[in-house]
Specification:
By secondary structure, this protein is an alpha+beta fold. Helices cover 28% and strands 24% of the residues. The protein contains five helices and 15 strands. It has helices at 13-36, 43-56, 123-141, 149-162, 259-264, and strands at residues 60-61, 73-77, 80-82, 96-105, 108-117, 167-168, 174-176, 183-187, 204-207, 210-212, 218-220, 227-229, 235-237, 240-245, 248-251. The chain has a five-stranded antiparallel beta sheet with strand order 8-7-9-14-15. Strands 1, 2, 4 and 5 form a four-stranded antiparallel beta sheet that branches. It is globular, with a radius of gyration of 17 Å. The relative contact order is 0.18. Bound molecules: magnesium ion (2 copies).
């Protein structure tokens, strides 16, 4: 079976450069939102800031209208895992808010997410966020040309398990990305290495661990979007879009291309 049989989209270097443009818009928008995620702001206000940031950069918010989604970002607070809809909810000290953002430039997509503390949060939440972000980077760092997609999955799971008892959400996964936001292959956050499509130049993937302080079980609220933990435990979600080039790994949604984090993990930086 060839890669194309699995529906995996292989981009040219010029097309990857297009994805980098979208990724920079996403990365800068998330950094802007991180600064605004303070007690007293509503999630709808964060959404307005995001839409302005995306459109003023000449990009289009990819979430707005996606299967009817009504906003430019997802905002998921505390026990909400992903896909929360921005609205009247006002952030309070001690909350954690996951912000997921996507943008399109010239038809190419970027997709990334961060979880941000609001004011002072409990130490266990700081740990949850740190472990989730580290797991994302370990997953990206495990990807190399000639490897397989679940090498990433395995590295994410191994890191989370090494840190204690946490829930690794299985109902949602990372994904291929390019001329559409969600493409094959799925990138699960758990599993054995060495399976799935081969990692080749021109493939772009979104890696996005969703980790809880309790179990892996989730439910969807009556708004048909918001995913919450079944046990009410709090959750964290980090995501980046990355690709592999002939010289290394390039995190398209990180403003620095991922160079600092990759270098710290001993992974060659492949940006241009
Ligand atoms: Mg996302
Ligand atoms: Mg995604």
């Amino acid at each position: 079976m060839g890669l194309l049989d699995r529906g995996v989209e292989i981009k040219s270097p010029e097309q990857i450069d297009g994805m980098r443009k979208a990724g920079i818009v996403v990365g800068r928008t998330l950094e802007l939102l991180r600064g605004h995620a303070r007690a007293g702001i509503s999630t709808a206000e964060l959404d307005g800031i995001a839409e302005d940031s995306i459109r003023s950069a000449g990009a289009t918010p990819s979430f707005l209208g996606y299967h009817g989604f009504p906003a430019s970002i997802c905002t998921s607070v505390n026990d909400e895992v992903v896909h929360g809809i921005p609205g009247d909810r006002v952030l309070a000290d001690g909350d954690v808010v996951s912000i997921d953002c996507g943008a399109i430039v010239e038809g190419w997509h970027g997709d990334a997410a961060i979880t941000v503390p609001v004011g002072e949060v409990a130490a266990e939440l700081t740990n949850l966020m740190r472990i989730t972000e580290e797991a994302m980077w370990r997953g990206i760092a495990a990807a190399h040309l000639g490897g397989r997609v679940t090498d990433i999955s395995h590295a994410v799971e191994r890191h989370v398990r090494s840190q204690g008892r946490y829930g690794i959400v299985e109902d949602y996964t990372g994904h291929g990305i390019g001329s559409a936001m969600h493409q094959p292959p799925n990138v699960p956050n758990y599993g054995r290495p060495g399976k799935g499509p081969r990692l080749v130049e021109g493939l772009a993937l979104a890696v996005e661990p969703m980790i809880t302080g309790g179990t892996k079980e989730t439910d969807v609220l009556e708004d048909d979007w918001t995913v919450v933990t079944t046990d009410g435990s709090r959750a964290a979600h980090f995501e980046h879009t990355f690709t592999l080039t002939s010289t290394g790994t390039w995190v398209l949604t990180a403003p620095d291309g991922g160079e600092a984090a990759l270098t710290a993990l001993g992974v060659p930086f492949g940006g241009r």
